[in-house]
Amino acid sequence: MWVWILVAIGVAMIASLVLWAIWLAHKAGDVYHQLADLGSKVGKLAEQVERLDLSPLDQPTPRAGDLPGHADVTGADVAAARRSTPQARRARPS
Predict the structure, then answer these.
(1) What SS3 class is residue 54?
(2) Per-residue pLDDT tens for 62-81?
């Protein structure tokens, strides 16, 4: 009698192991498809990055004094210009 109980438990364990292996295979297939989709999106992103024109970034940014018609501006010049605006004159108490 005990033998048949142990055999039934063994068969049930083998059946659950087979079902678990099938479930795991399906999950592995889902992961594979997700990675394939990710790979195609990365490829599309790489194509878009290749189309970008980054040549202006290779040149240094000009300073205000380097531009024609512009003198070097100091912090004191900016502060004086801010104090002379109409908004600043209205905000000052008379």
Answers:
(1) coil
(2) 665 555 555 555 666 666 76
Question: For tokens 């912090």, what's the residue?
Answer: 75
**What is the spatial distance between Cα 66 and Cα 58, in angstroms, rounded to a whole number?**
17
DSSP letter, residue 59? S
| pLDDT digits 0-9 by tens, 30-59 | 999 999 999 999 999 999 988 887 776 666
Q: What phi, psi does 61 have (nearest 5°)?
A: -75, 130
Domain boundaries, the chain: 1-29
Please state, in angstroms and rounded to a whole number, the distance separating the CA atoms of residues 24 and 47: 35
Q: Produce one character per residue of 41-66: b if its CB has 16 or more CB atoms within 10 Å, e if not.
A: eeeeeeeeeeeeeeeeeeeeeeeeee
Per-residue CA distances from 46 to 6, 34, 35, 36, 51 (Å): 59, 18, 16, 15, 9
